[in-house]
């Protein structure tokens, strides 16, 4: 064997004798705001296991890492002045424990295992935060709206507060989903708005505009907020249902006479006049002579 081959064989033999480190962490993890979080870090060390240290870091948007906790053979320490000093710890199997999740925790966490001569390895977990919004509230016009309006009328405004990530709002008419059209037109459209509050949570609003006709006089409207929680689960919350008061012209007038089959002089006779418009018109009776 030449000298180069002997040297290569020696290096491989030494590396094999020293061992290796393998680290396993979940690629992505979900958590609810305000709830405790556990981020596991499983590691396997072959060969020398002396001087093992497990460290947890957070990584900012610039890719810089800051250590927040570590554990070695003698101690388990939470680093001071990191924003996590009062909220994190490590349990016996090196899992990182966050006592109460905050929106700032939506970031990448890194677990690094150093095992002396066996080397080191690391793994990254992206933590995603979720917070269910408040049930939607609707604000609708109590005044009478007219079918004679040339442009779509404002039906109502739907609002849902304190959600994360920003939820979506959908509108229903008689329990049928309305098309989500945000381009202004002469039939139906919606105006959505998203506001990020100082807390980091989102308030979403959505105004519904629709061209009205007489067939809408008995229609029931409501809105629905749609949001996502952990494990990609979809959730919904519905608002109360409401009905608009519609002004429409009279198209049909009905006249009825209530009396016995044969009317004799002196009998009581009731004349009924009704119209299908709203509000009901004034009625005037005339006697033709």
UniProtKB/TrEMBL annotation:
Coiled-coil residue spans: none
Keyword Electron transport in record: no
Major site of localization recorded for this protein: membrane
Subcellular location: Membrane
Annotated keywords: Disulfide bond, Glycoprotein, Immunoglobulin domain, Membrane, Repeat, Signal, Transmembrane, Transmembrane helix
Highest rank taxon of the organism: Eukaryota
Residues of the Ig-like domain: 34-128, 136-245
TM ranges: none
CC per GO annotation: plasma membrane
Membrane topology, from the record: Single-pass type I membrane protein
PROSITE patterns assigned: IG_LIKE
Signal peptide: 1-19
One MF annotation (Gene Ontology) recorded for this entry: laminin receptor activity
UniProt-recorded name of the protein: Ig-like domain-containing protein
């Amino acid at each position: 064997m030449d000298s180069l081959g002997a040297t290569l064989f020696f290096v491989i033999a030494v590396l094999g004798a020293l061992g290796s480190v393998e680290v396993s962490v979940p690629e992505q993890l979900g958590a609810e705001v305000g709830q405790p979080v556990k981020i596991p870090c499983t590691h396997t060390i072959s060969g020398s296991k002396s001087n093992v240290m497990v460290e947890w870091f957070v990584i900012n948007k610039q890719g810089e890492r800051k250590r927040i906790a570590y554990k070695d053979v003698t101690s388990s320490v939470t680093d001071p002045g990191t924003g996590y000093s009062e909220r994190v710890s490590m349990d016996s199997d090196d899992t990182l424990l966050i006592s109460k999740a905050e929106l700032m925790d939506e970031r990448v966490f890194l677990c690094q295992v150093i095992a002396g001569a066996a080397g080191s390895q690391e793994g990254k977990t992206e933590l995603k935060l979720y917070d269910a919004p408040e049930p939607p509230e609707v604000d609708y016009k109590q005044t009478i709206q007219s079918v004679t309006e040339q442009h779509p009328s404002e039906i109502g405004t739907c609002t849902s507060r304190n959600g994360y990530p920003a939820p979506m709002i959908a509108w229903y008419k008689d329990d049928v989903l309305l098309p989500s059209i945000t381009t202004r037109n002469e039939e139906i459209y919606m105006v959505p708005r998203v506001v990020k509050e100082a807390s980091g949570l989102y308030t979403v609003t959505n105004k519904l505009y629709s061209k009205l006709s007489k067939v809408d006089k008995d229609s029931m409207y409501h809105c629905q907020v749609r949001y996502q929680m952990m494990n990609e689960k979809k959730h919904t919350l519905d608002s109360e249902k409401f009905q608009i008061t519609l002004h429409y012209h009279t198209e049909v007038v009905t006249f009825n006479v209530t009396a016995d089959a044969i009317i004799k002089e002196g009998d009581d006779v009731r004349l009924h006049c009704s119209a299908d418009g709203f509000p009901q018109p004034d009625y005037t009776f005339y006697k033709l002579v």
